[in-house]
Structure formats: structure tokens, C-alpha cells
Amino acid sequence: MSETARIPVRSSEDVWTFTQRNVPLWDILEFFPPDSIGPRGPNDAPRPYEVKPITIETDLGWSFETDIQYGAWIFRPRSPNKPGMMKWCRERELAPGDAIVFEKAGDRVVRVRLERPAAGI
């Protein structure tokens, strides 16, 4: 399994989704521990295993603990004012052509950083 995973920001629609809703993890689910996938909501049946959160360390100097919502395949949503993916995407000012890069940093620790194409390319 790779030590990094990338989610490309392909369009202005992606920018809107990532900054106003959440970052879909469907294409990189295998990057995260299987037991980090929790129920979709509080009224759903519990998962058939103990759900263990992961810590996301950002390149902005703050981190957050989360699980992945079953069926929605996103990190647990939070207000954009609280540490989470939506806040990170807004503060990094995502643009089409960028990539969100996840890197394994420990057993249950993942770093996230922005990869921006070089100017003039």
C-alpha cells in the first residue's frame, strides 16, 4: 500500500464541494485503516467492529481527530469554523489543478498538505 494518496482538484465544482461540503474519500478509502470507518449517523446501527479514529495533521499547524462516515465516504463533518477538512480546504484556498495529498505519518496519523502545480506549467 502506498504511503501517499492524492485527490485532484479538477474543477471549480470540486473547489465548491471541498470548501462548502466535504472531501469525498471514495477513491482513496484503502489508504485509511478499515476500522476508521464509522456509522453514517447517530441513529445508524453500530459497525461490526470497534471504530478507531485517526488523527489528521495539517500543513497549517493544527490537527483533528476523525473517523470516516460509512456510505458517505467522507471524514466526519464539522462546522467550517472548527478544525476539519472543510476548514483546511478554505484556508488553503484550493484552486483547480491543485491536489490534496495525504501522507502516512504513524499508525493512525495522516498528514495532509496542498500540492500546487508550478507556475507557468
Structure description:
The protein has 121 residues and is α/β, with parallel strands linked by helices. It has a single domain, classed as At1g16640 B3 domain. 13% of the residues lie in helices and 27% in strands. α1 crosses α2. The longest helix has 9 residues, at 12-20. 21% of the residues are buried.
The CATH topology name reads At1g16640 B3 domain
Proportion of helical residues: 10-25%
How much β-strand is present in the residues? 25-35%
Radius of gyration over C-alpha positions, nearest whole angstrom: 14 Å
The biggest beta sheet is recorded as:
5 strands, mixed
Poorly predicted residue ranges:
none
Q: Give the CATH class.
A: Mainly Beta
Quick one: overall form?
globular
| Count of spatially separate domains | 1
| Measured distance between first and last alpha carbons | 30 Å
The strand order across the widest sheet is 1-6-7-3-4
Annotation field: number of helices = 2
Number of DSSP-assigned strands: 7
CATH architecture: Beta Barrel
Mean pLDDT: 93
Can you lay out the helices and strands and say which pair or pack?
Elements: E1 4-8, H1 12-20, E2 37-38, E3 54-58, E4 63-66, E5 68-69, H2 85-91, E6 99-106, E7 109-115
Parallel strand pairs: 2-5, 3-7
Antiparallel strand pairs: 1-6, 3-4, 6-7
Helix pairs in contact: 1-2
